[in-house]
Amino acid sequence: MTRIVMKFGGTSVADIDRIRNVAQRVKREVEHGNQVAVVVSAMAGVTNQLVKYCTDLSPLHDAREYDAVVATGEQVTSGLLAIALQDLGIDARSWQGWQIPLRTDRAHSKARIQEIPGAELIRRMETGQVAIVAGFQGLADDNRITTLGRGGSDTSAVALAAALKADRCDIYTDVDGVYTTDPRIVPQARKLAKITYEEMLELASVGAKVLQTRSVELAMNERVRVRVLSSFTDALPGEDTGTLVVDEDEIVEKENVAGIAYSRDDAKFTLRRVPDRPGIAACIFGALADQNVNVDMIVQNISADGTTDMTFTVGKADLPRARQALADVKGQIAYGELQEDPNVAKISVVGVGMRSHAGVANTMFRALADKAINIQVISTSEIKVSVLIAAEYTELAVRALHTAYGLDAN
Amino acid sequence: MTRIVMKFGGTSVADIDRIRNVAQRVKREVEHGNQVAVVVSAMAGVTNQLVKYCTDLSPLHDAREYDAVVATGEQVTSGLLAIALQDLGIDARSWQGWQIPLRTDRAHSKARIQEIPGAELIRRMETGQVAIVAGFQGLADDNRITTLGRGGSDTSAVALAAALKADRCDIYTDVDGVYTTDPRIVPQARKLAKITYEEMLELASVGAKVLQTRSVELAMNERVRVRVLSSFTDALPGEDTGTLVVDEDEIVEKENVAGIAYSRDDAKFTLRRVPDRPGIAACIFGALADQNVNVDMIVQNISADGTTDMTFTVGKADLPRARQALADVKGQIAYGELQEDPNVAKISVVGVGMRSHAGVANTMFRALADKAINIQVISTSEIKVSVLIAAEYTELAVRALHTAYGLDAN
């Protein structure tokens, strides 16, 4: 008996016909003899509409109310899919985050899952009932709804797979796997049969939006085998398709670079003439952390006349909050000027093979220089090199790098 | 210190601008020194769309899943109004049915409220926080979401007013009060300054859709003073406007007939050649009750050859369920034929003065006869006479009766 979690994203449940298709796909797995739990996103477009309502009413809205509003999208889909499955003669019921309850912390709009009691769901799955779980949402200890951040349904699915001790977590999406880069930009991009958790993590964190970053982290920590596959092609249960996200050990031939990713979700701040004294960075980034703003790349220039320039990036969604936080500490820090640039893109090359091969970063810098693309900020990790460039060069840069690393399909 | 419950229907919160207007109106009451709880409906059109999703997937869908789906409309509005109020500097938070918890029975899609613990809400209202309660929804003892039936937010509001011991329950809607009849049909219709619970109840039950029937019953039982007023005119707090629904004692001059109502929400069933023996009616209406189908008018002809004809009406929404239930008992009852007619309208004249004045029914029958309108079924109560006619005569009948009872404004 195989126990699986199937997760369907917004485009897979975009309308009633597609929800019926999803029900058919779930039914096939049930009839194949599997125990099945399903995690669903909101119907495509719904979450954006709900977010827009909140933002239109107030850019700095209460995140608890935002969560109550946006969590409804998944609630609708979970009930509809349960109805569609019942209509096919399959026993099914919907579960909201607060009903399970899927416990999270209180970081509203970007909450982290703390605990999922799986016993009751397992008991019902063993009787043949399909659990349809509303993704993206949970319950904080103050009895209020939380949401996990955009793409959070992936995290719901992986966490549920771990809690249910599932054999596999199948993430159905509108692409048929993980590619060496975005095929809309590079038609020669190739689908990867397997990718390591670490690579997937770096790709996800820099904008290859197949899986949410945290879902991959969680899969890695909990050793959940994740499969990314398309909900629009007709794979049979058990068939080998999509991309499997697994342990490094499972991959025999490792390439230097697995893929090229890009992200236009960040904005760049530069604080000019910051007094160069101990504790300044703590003060700036402490103020941002207090507002729940995640800071990504950080560069500090060498100090001249007792002051320095500090450049960093934050998610565009956090921009008003970050701007406010930085204005609030101006009295304390006495920086000269605050500059803001939303027109930036982060380009990254990723690969576990990088660890044992020198020259990967240099290939990147040379390829970009050849196209006269200016690098604004550089950051590196063990298996990734990222650069910040002007957003208008995004496609050009991705194509040049895909070719430079020999990733183009023949 | 006055404690009030304000309820806003779907058209009052139809878009972001209207939600802002509602927030302004709530703010005025707060600044007037009132403790305020607000009950909101879904944005206009949203519930219909959600119901359609369910019906499209399966006409006989699981009512528990239906409830999970349709309850989201009110959840969205409650969060948005909280954001709008906070943006005006008013402390506010949203409450879902399961958070209060607003306890109901398990009759999904038409649940009845059993208990609302008010202490926590009162405590917060006393600190100045506005409670925004999602209308129409509650929680059954199996921890699943219930809904109260269409228009259920009125019932939520009145029940909440009772639980909070509120001084008044203001129902904001798209009309500015209760009229002698539907002004869209009879332009000479007059607004009533006051109406008794009993009259309001009869009007609501026959389709004057200003208030849901159950909300009026509840108001009568709990002696909640209800005011119906428009959310689109600019009344100031404390101003005397709209229609007050109150005890009969509060109304000095009672008219014979307070109003004329109509409803096209019913469908007529006729069972031909039903064996005329004891227990038959119990069998038929028992089967319908088991399916949660409400039966309204019932007529049984005098028995001829050992069989009789049985005519009754049910809500159009219950039609498939009723048809199924009647087919299921055909073996048991052995009736001859089942006829179904959805093209009927129920026209009612209502007034507490009727009790002490004879001839009210006769005026009705004569007025309809003068227009050559055939009466299919008649039913009466202490303060109401209703007839079932072909739906195409609805407007003609309402106008004729409004004139016949001298209700036309000068």
Automatic annotation (TrEMBL), chains A, B:
Keywords: Amino-acid biosynthesis, ATP-binding, Kinase, Lysine biosynthesis, Nucleotide-binding, Transferase. Pathway: Amino-acid biosynthesis; L-threonine biosynthesis; L-threonine from L-aspartate: step 1/5; Amino-acid biosynthesis; L-lysine biosynthesis via DAP pathway; (S)-tetrahydrodipicolinate from L-aspartate: step 1/4; Amino-acid biosynthesis; L-methionine biosynthesis via de novo pathway; L-homoserine from L-aspartate: step 1/3. It comes from the Bacteria. Residues 269-352 form the ACT domain. It is an enzyme of class 2 (transferase). GO terms for molecular function: aspartate kinase activity; ATP binding. The keyword Methyltransferase does not apply. GO terms for cellular component: cytosol. GO terms for biological process: homoserine biosynthetic process; lysine biosynthetic process via diaminopimelate; threonine biosynthetic process. Coiled coil: none annotated. Gene3D superfamilies: Acetylglutamate kinase-like, VC0802-like. The keyword Nucleotide-binding applies. Substrate binds at residues 47, 74. Its EC number is 2.7.2.4. CDD domains: AAK_AKii-LysC-BS, ACT_AKii-LysC-BS-like_1, ACT_AKii-LysC-BS-like_2. It catalyses: L-aspartate + ATP = 4-phospho-L-aspartate + ADP. InterPro entries: AceGlu_kinase-like_sf, ACT-like_dom_sf, ACT_Aspartokinase, ACT_dom, AKii-LysC-BS, Asp/Glu/Uridylate_kinase, Asp_kin_monofn, Asp_kinase. Pfam families: AA_kinase, ACT, ACT_9. ATP binds at residues 7-10, 173-174, 179, 184, 209-210. NCBIfam families: asp_kin_monofn, asp_kinases, PRK06635.1-2, PRK06635.1-4. Belongs to the aspartokinase family. This is Aspartokinase. It comes from Rhodopila globiformis.
